[in-house]
Design a protein that fits this description.
The chain is an all-alpha fold. It has one domain (10-108). It contains 5 helices and no strands. The chain has helices at 10-32, 36-52, 56-79, 84-101, 103-112. α1 (10-32) runs antiparallel to α2 (36-52) and α3 (56-79) runs antiparallel to α4. The longest helix has 24 residues, at 56-79. The mean pLDDT is 93.
């Protein structure tokens, strides 16, 4: 079992590290408030562990978690358009989904993941 695979493409490496970072922040958020979005982000962290171990379920779980997180951030951005945290969260959620859905990541997952 690996936490990180340096032989994967840079897009997947970045997505794994970014998902782990989001999960660590979500754990801190769970200590202060009980929100469902933190559980979705933790699912993304579990998906990142699956990606690091070249599992197809991890790749799909991470994509679903990132897409749900992006939808929540879009809604928050609509309601709070001039809040810097909302803008930053929206930017990072788009970045994570772009890393996961890049052609390099998709091809690598299609060929090498079990």
């Amino acid at each position: 079992m690996r936490w990180f695979d340096p032989s994967q493409p840079q897009t997947l490496q970045g997505a794994v590290l970014f998902s782990y970072l989001n999960a660590a922040i979500a754990i801190i958020g769970l200590l202060s408030s009980r929100s469902l979005i933190e559980l979705v982000i933790l699912a993304g962290g579990a998906g990142a562990l699956g990606i690091a171990n070249e599992r197809r379920w991890g790749y799909y779980l991470c994509i679903v978690a990132a897409a749900v997180f992006l939808c929540v951030q879009v809604v928050l951005f609509i309601y709070y358009p001039f809040v810097f945290a909302a803008m930053l969260n929206l930017l990072f959620s788009v970045f994570l989904l772009a890393l996961l859905l890049s052609p390099i990541s998709r091809n690598y997952a299609r060929i090498y993941f079990k």
